[in-house]
């Protein structure tokens, strides 16, 4: 065991790396998010209660509308389309057939709840990566602005389907029919 590994274990961090996948699927017994982007580890700190409340509210809405052949996952599945990319969206929707025990290589929807510490990564980096890897829908929920941006994939880039604010509602069909309202998700 290396000194670095010993220090990480002493700090309560453990790493599980599946065979053939260097550095991804990093698991730790804390509330931080561990992702691998272009082979580099990216760590996001613990998010505020408003962030978690928004994730849970949207998860409940999606689960109620979700058909039985799809899976709504909250922070438990990585999106891992390549060996050098392992992302953990706040919410991931995939087919049950595509969901493995730790990750999915294909997804139908990725959702990120924006916070000051993740805004640039979510709006720029992840948007580009999710589009490159063919996720048909990407949503950005901003609790501070009470705003939900619904993006859909058009060829290899996302186009804005809707920007919903406050009490407004929007019905979408991707990845399945559901009606959304930021105010209902954030109150």
What does this structure look like?
It is built from 4 helices and 13 strands. The chain is an alpha+beta fold and 187 residues long. It has helices spanning 3-10, 49-65, 119-132, 182-186, and strands spanning 33-37, 40-44, 70-73, 78-82, 85-87, 91-95, 103-104, 109-113, 137-142, 147-154, 157-165, 170-172, 178-180. The chain is globular and about 40 Å long. Residues 4-28 have low confidence and may be disordered. Strand 4 (78-82) and strand 5 form a beta hairpin. The strands form 3 sheets. It has a 6-stranded mixed β-sheet, with helices on both faces. It starts with a helix and ends with a helix.
Q: What integer value in Å does the Rg equal?
A: 17 Å
- Overall form: globular
Q: Mean pLDDT score, rounded?
A: 83
Class from helix and strand fractions: alpha+beta
Sheet with the most strands: spatial strand order:
3-6-8-9-10-11
Main pleated-sheet profile: 6 strands, mixed
Order of helices and strands: HEEHEEEEEEHEEEEEH
The count of DSSP E runs of length 2 or more, i.e. the number of strands, is 13
Helix-residue proportion:
10-25%
Beta-strand proportion? 25-35%
Number of helices: 4
Q: What's the end-to-end separation, in Å?
A: 48 Å
| Low-confidence parts | 4-28
Oligomer: single chain
Summarize the structure.
The protein has helices spanning 3-10, 49-65, 119-132, 182-186; strands at 33-37, 40-44, 70-73, 78-82, 85-87, 91-95, 103-104, 109-113, 137-142, 147-154, 157-165, 170-172, 178-180. It is α+β, with helices and mostly antiparallel strands and 187 residues long.
């Amino acid at each position: 065991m290396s000194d670095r590994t010993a220090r990480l274990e002493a700090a309560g961090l453990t790493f599980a790396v599946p065979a053939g996948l260097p550095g991804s699927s990093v698991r730790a017994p804390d509330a931080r998010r561990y992702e691998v982007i272009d082979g580099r580890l990216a760590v996001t700190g613990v998010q505020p209660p408003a962030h978690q409340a928004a994730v849970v509210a949207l998860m409940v809405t999606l689960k109620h509308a979700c058909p039985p052949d799809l899976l709504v996952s909250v922070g438990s599945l990585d999106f891992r389309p390549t060996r050098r990319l392992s992302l953990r969206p706040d919410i991931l929707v995939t087919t049950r057939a595509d969901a493995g025990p730790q990750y999915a290589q294909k997804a139908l929807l990725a959702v990120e709840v924006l916070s000051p510490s993740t805004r640039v990564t979510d709006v720029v980096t992840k948007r580009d990566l999710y589009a490159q890897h063919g996720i048909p829908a990407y949503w950005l929920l901003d609790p501070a602005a009470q705003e939900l941006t619904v993006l859909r994939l058009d060829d290899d880039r996302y186009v804005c389907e809707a920007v919903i604010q406050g009490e407004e509602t929007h019905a979408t069909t991707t990845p399945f029919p559901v009606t959304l309202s930021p105010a209902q998700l954030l109150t």
